[in-house]
Amino acid sequence: MMRLKQLIPILCLLFVTSFVNGQEVPKHNIYFGNDNAELSATVQQLLDTIYYNLPEGRQVLIGIIGEMDKSKSPLINNQLGEARMKTAYDYLMAKGVKEKDMTRLVKDKNNQNIGANSDKTKEVFNYELHLKKAPPKAKIVYWYKRLNQEYPKKPNCFIVNPNNVSNLTSYEGTIISIPRYCFVYETGELAENDINICFLEFYKKSDILLADMNTMNKGKALQTGGILNISATCNNRTVVLSPPNSITIKFPAKKYVSGMKLYDGFERGGTISWQESEIQNTAANQLVYAFKILKTGWYNCGTTVEGQNTGTLTVAVDSAYRQEVRLVLKDMNSVISGTYIDGRTVQFNNLPIGQKAYIVSYCYRNDVPAYCAKEITISANGKETLDLQETTYKDLQTYLGTLQ
After folding, report:
1. Are 28 and 50 contacting, i.e. CB atoms less than 8 angstroms apart?
2. Contact 142/211 with Cβ under 8 angstroms?
3. Phi, psi of 207 (to 5 degrees)
């Protein structure tokens, strides 16, 4: 992502390079097992990577590749090709891809699209999906995007030998245990050379705020025990975990909270959305939260905020400036984002009544950074007005550091 969230897979970077240089629509192949139409876990992760990291307004071709039984007729093999294409199509639809953004293509050996009535008994055709995202709407350059470019959070990277079991401890205390020979290239070949493992960690409220992330799931607040992004490459190519291998990650329990679960992160529209995982905390003590993960990417160790979560808060902002507005709970690690209901009002819902919190807002005002912070107690129907004051990044960082 080369903003604060700068660990998007190398695949995405290759896409972006192609788009910027005005080259033809890039293509990436997905591979099926011999004579079957099932999606492996590796291919599922690759499809996730392709779609979630595809820039808005861009497009890509997904080639459907896999061995076929040459002793069978072209008709039977074409039926297998169609089944494979439908499997990938249905998977992306289930992930939220809109029908209008995906087209199924069937091409002959000359790479020409064929018609619905073409004779499939004489030639085995090639199958592809054409995937696109709608062009972006005009956007204001928000404060956090400029911060991400000017003050990126640096990843913690390690070189590991795939022949050995590796136990890594990061700057901020995250422990990652990696078994031998667990990574493969996206095409399925074993990654046998040194693996470059990088991860970003977000434990502090200030880091979460400056990265423009939140700790919410389905519109409700979570308190987090840490947010982590893991990526892996070998020979400058993205590698993924080969099933049934898993990596163990241990988040340090700086203030132990029971009921911690793992949430998967998906990037949509420049922000991270969290989805509850079935992976449970397996730690035998209260020093860490431990989880076995099956793929690289974004993870949030969190749990729902207890209490009467029925409070609302309406915040009036200066309509001349598009402000980022967040609600930070005082006594727990929780950063909540609001929703603009018009150009002058941001609304927060499903808030824990009685909790003390800080409203934090920031933007650029006439190209000068400005912010506002106010402490409140969440009520059933709160209303607040914010007055911005000029600041600097250093002063804002110092203030946000006090929220922890």
Report:
1. yes
2. no
3. -65, -40
Q: Which of 128, 160, 127, 136 is nearest to 50 (CA)?
A: 128
In the chain, the amino acid numbered 393 is Y
Residue 109's contacts (CB-CB under 8 Å, 6 or more residues apart) are: 123, 126
Q: Is the distance from CB of 360 to CB of 326 less than 8 angstroms?
A: yes
Structure tokens at 138: 């005009």
All domains of the chain in start order, with CATH: 10-132 (3.30.110), 143-304 (2.60.220), 309-401 (2.60.40.1120)
User: What residues pair up with 238 in beta bridges, in sequence order?
Assistant: 233
Question: What's the pLDDT tens digit per position in 203-219?
Answer: 999 888 888 889 999 88
CA atoms within 13 A on the CB side of 134: 9
For residues 195 and 163, the answer to whether their CB atoms sit within 8 Å is no
**Which one, of 226, 156, 151, lies nearest residue 397 by Cα?**
151
CB distance 230 to 199 below 8 Å: yes
Nearest to 401 by CA among 368, 369, 373: 373
Contact call for residues 309 and 336 (beta carbons, < 8 A): no
Q: What is the DSSP string of 258-313?
A: TT-EEEEEEEETTEEEEEEEEEEP--SSSSEEEEEESS-EEEEEEEEPPS-EEEEE
pLDDT (tens digit per residue) in 24-63: 678 888 889 888 899 888 888 888 878 877 777 788 899 9
CA-to-CA distance for 383 and 400, rounded, in angstroms? 23
Burial status of residue 361 (CB atoms within 10 A of its CB: 0-12, 13-18, 19 or more): buried
CB 174, CB 165: distance < 8 Å: no
Give pTM, 2 decimals: 0.64
